[in-house]
Design a protein that fits this description.
homodimer, Jelly Rolls, about 210 residues, DNA-binding, four-stranded antiparallel sheet, about 40% helix, Arc Repressor Mutant, subunit A, three-stranded antiparallel sheet, alpha+beta
Chain lengths: ~210, ~210
DNA sequence: TGTCGCCTGTGATTTATGTCACGGGCTGCT
DNA sequence: AGCAGCCCGTGACATAAATCACAGGCGACA
């Protein structure tokens, strides 16, 4: 089990030869929820593609706060790890498995060549970069232009969409960290959202209603 | 004048055939300082490379505030306009000539093919995307983790570096808009910086000292 | 049962920032 | 000269958010 073949539907856009190489040269990595996959400052030696589960990307500051950037869902690749040239650069972000996850890992020496060799790989990489760039833009919008209440709503919507569920198993503490805010603030805002009927606060987790 | 040949030193990394195509299929665009080159919502039909002058990229919100993202210097390309696939997407940013500028403009139908055809073009595009992605990350750091005073210093440093001068001809009003703050706040902080000896406030402009 | 470690809620206070309301300077135009 | 349209600085105030201090709930475990 956990062979690449099991995940073909995710890679259906890739041409045959590439799939073959992926199978030969790629390695499957199983990660437990919470496991750190890529750490700030660490060198990037491998291209990573998520095959199953959910990965979260963070930007870290000097004190170690982890600011949430975006999710990687099954079928998506880590933009930073897709393009590395010769000049293998240190990672500027932290990637962490949010659920148990399965990753496809390929050395950058290999994927570098695919870029010219396989048209579909090129499309995959370009599409990934574009998408992540736009996701960063959206993140910037929110921190630059919006107040915490709107940012909180956006955060909840994003998580609901990525996880495909209306019930989020998150603590206020955790949300506060990822928004670079404080628990008390999130607690108060969450109460407001609940009074507005936008969420229901469960003993364990948050149910999104009209949000 | 203003032939592509004059800017060869900027494009020195590109292979011969590509330079030839650039010369044949590219078009020179001269822009006046302040001219808008790419507007939010506008379709991207051309790849743009800055040959001379300085271009500023902004993210706009609904009310029309323009949040400064980063500069494009001579020799640099607009990341968004480099990758467009078939699915020509609307621009999510505004680009504006900060000084008088000269741009090299090539239809995306043409550059799309270069990606596979010319190795040096591929490197150029990938390098551009990487750099812009990292520049966005840096921007996020600052708005997510820092106070206005540090953000202001960063803004000034960035501008000094991009313009290659220690004297910036900017008004407080303009700075406030680009940081999405207010004139009064910038005014007070600028006074503080001047008291700390980090800048000198000229009648016309700001001189950076130990910053 | 007690206590530890997690979580939550909430008032009081402080701080950073945005907003309002001034006054005043400089330039260019008529 | 007089006015319009920029720009700047500054005090007073309003607001969002962070911080402090506390109390209490709940599950794990000895």
């Amino acid at each position: 089990m956990n062979k690449i073949e099991n995940y073909r539907h995710l890679l259906r856009d890739l041409e045959e030869g590439l799939l073959k190489e992926l199978t030969e040269k790629g390695r499957i990595l199983e990660a437990k929820a919470g496991q750190v996959l890529l750490q700030t400052g660490q060198n990037i030696r491998n291209t990573m593609i998520v095959l199953d589960g959910l990965v979260k990307l963070y930007r870290e500051n000097e004190e170690g706060s982890e600011f949430f950037m975006y999710h990687l869902n099954a079928g998506e690749g880590c933009a930073l790890s897709l393009i590395c040239d010769r000049t293998i650069k240190a990672s500027a972000v932290t990637a962490k498995a949010d659920t148990d996850a399965v990753l496809l890992v390929v050395p950058v020496e290999v994927t570098e060549n695919w870029m010219r060799q396989y048209r579909t790989w090129y499309h995959f990489v370009v599409g990934t970069y574009r998408k992540r760039y736009e996701e960063l833009l959206e993140t910037i919008d929110h921190i630059a232009f919006q107040n915490m209440d709107e940012r909180l709503e956006f955060y909840l919507r994003r998580h609901s969409k990525a996880l495909g569920t209306k019930v989020l198993d998150l603590t206020n503490t955790q949300i506060a960290q990822e928004l670079n805010s404080s628990r008390e603030v999130v607690s108060r805002l969450m109460k407001k959202l609940s009074e507005q009927g936008k969420v229901r606060l469960l003993k364990q987790g948050i149910e999104l209603l009209k949000i």
